[in-house]
Design brief:
Number of domains: 2
Shape: globular
Number of helices: 7
Order of helices and strands: HEEHHHHHH
Distance between the termini: 57 Å
Strand content: 5-15%
Radius of gyration: 18 Å
Length: 136
């Protein structure tokens, strides 16, 4: 029994549809308890089946760093739009090359930070600092 979102993510991402796991979210105040099933969550949110573990890895958890200023909800919305499945599959495929993983990571970060398609991620990250003059 736990109340951490990481448990829900891992439950949805790692359980088979034949053996669902139930997750109880305790209610607070006037909000009643809510019971979730890993099977129902996967069926209602098709993007979760393949992408939830990748999204979780990018957004961090109790033992890993998170992306600055971006949370699980923001990246999950990117996945729900349906434009990151190919990039996600690169991370799932154990035979992916380092180059493919780097390109897929750049694509995910670019979508998350809404980098214009005419600009690369490195240039976009440097833009806020271009006006600064550094003394030698």
């Amino acid at each position: 029994m736990g109340e951490d979102i990481d448990l829900l993510v891992l439950t949805v991402g790692l359980t088979s549809s034949e053996n669902p796991i139930l997750f109880l979210k305790s209610g607070k105040g006037d909000t009643p308890n809510q019971l979730y099933s890993s099977h129902e969550l996967r069926e209602e949110n098709a993007w979760m089946r393949d992408d939830i573990l990748v999204a979780h890895a990018f957004t961090g958890c109790d033992s890993t760093s998170a992306i600055y200023g971006k949370g699980k909800l923001g990246l999950c919305k990117c996945f729900q739009k349906g434009n990151l499945q190919a990039a996600s599959q690169v991370f799932i495929d154990r035979d992916s090359s380092k180059k493919a993983v780097a390109e897929a990571g750049n694509e995910i970060f670019s979508h998350l930070y809404e980098v214009p398609s005419t600009q690369n991620l490195n240039d976009f990250q440097f833009m806020p600092f271009e006006h600064l003059k550094f003394k030698k």
